[in-house]
Amino acid sequence: MSKENKRIFSDIAYNYDKVNRIISLGMDVGWRRKLARMCLDGKRDVRILDAATGTADIPIIITEEARISGKRAEIVGIDYTKRMLDVGRQKVRRNGFKNIKLMLRDAHSTGLKGNSFDFVTSGFALRNFDDLQKFLNESYRVLKPGGSIAFLEVSRPDSAISKISWPYYHIFIPFVGMLYSRKSYAHLVSTVWKFDRDKLQKMASRAGFTDMKVHKLFLSVAFILTATKPK
Ligand SMILES: C[S@@+](CC[C@H](N)C(=O)[O-])C[C@H]1O[C@@H](n2cnc3c(N)ncnc32)[C@H](O)[C@@H]1O
């Protein structure tokens, strides 16, 4: 699975940002901004691990938000697909952001120091992990006591919306995907449809997280899960 995932993300790396904007109808930017504000809320200095950072959109948006609000954010972004990170590095360099460090690492076993981050974030990546429980355990390990996870993800919408959104998932996304990489976006639709939000919450609680909240976004097509490592 991870070999296939790496191939898929290498394949779409250079078009990833463009296709993301199209298939989310531009909404992903607002969702990422909301996640960024959650991480910065009530803090002056924050240290964040962005797992499966891809092309570094989340670290970049957190940095922009921190600058607007006069805060300091140090962000480590990790991903196991080199080409996604290459695109991310170009963007970070172009913006001159010195607070973002991007590293080629597996999110299941980061090799990073325990108890060292205020937040672990992740965007649109949970569906891709081979072992979600292992990733949640690793997030728990690297967080400081009192630190939190904030994961942005898309999932199958609630049943009332599910019917009207069917053409969006089964016609619009495959059509846009076909223009870039048919196989990769077929994979995206199948993982969205299979992803189980309740199971994720149970796993997070098994990892030790408490104070769990699901913030639903736009008709429940996306959500941000937050939870805390107890002090
Ligand atoms: C859909 S992209 C999301 C990228 C980015 N987080 C965003 O917000 O757009 C999923 C990313 O997860 C990465 N990924 C999947 N499994 C991983 C793992 N075990 N460790 C590190 N990266 C992983 C892929 O390489 C890919 O870049």
Sum this structure up briefly:
With 231 residues, the chain is of the alpha/beta class. It is built from 9 helices and 7 strands; from the N terminus they run H-H-H-E-H-E-H-E-E-H-E-H-H-H-E-E. It has one domain: Rossmann fold.
Describe this structure in words.
This protein is an alpha/beta fold. The protein has helices spanning 2-12, 16-23, 27-40, 57-68, 82-95, 132-142, 159-180, 182-194, 197-207; strands at 45-51, 72-79, 100-104, 117-123, 143-154, 210-217, 222-228. The chain has a single domain (2-156, 195-228), classed as Vaccinia Virus protein VP39 (Rossmann fold). Helices cover 50% and strands 23% of the residues. Strands 3-2-1-4-5-7-6 form a seven-stranded mixed sheet, sandwiched between helices. Strand 6 and strand 7 form a beta hairpin. The longest helix has 22 residues, at 159-180. The radius of gyration is 17 Å and the shape is globular. The structure holds S-adenosylmethionine.
**How many structural domains can be distinguished in the coordinates?**
1
Indicate the proportion of strand residues: 15-25%
Backbone structural class: alpha/beta
Query: Briefly, what CATH class?
Result: Alpha Beta
Secondary structure tally: strands = 7
If helices are DSSP runs of H or I spanning 4 or more residues, what is the number of helices?
A: 9
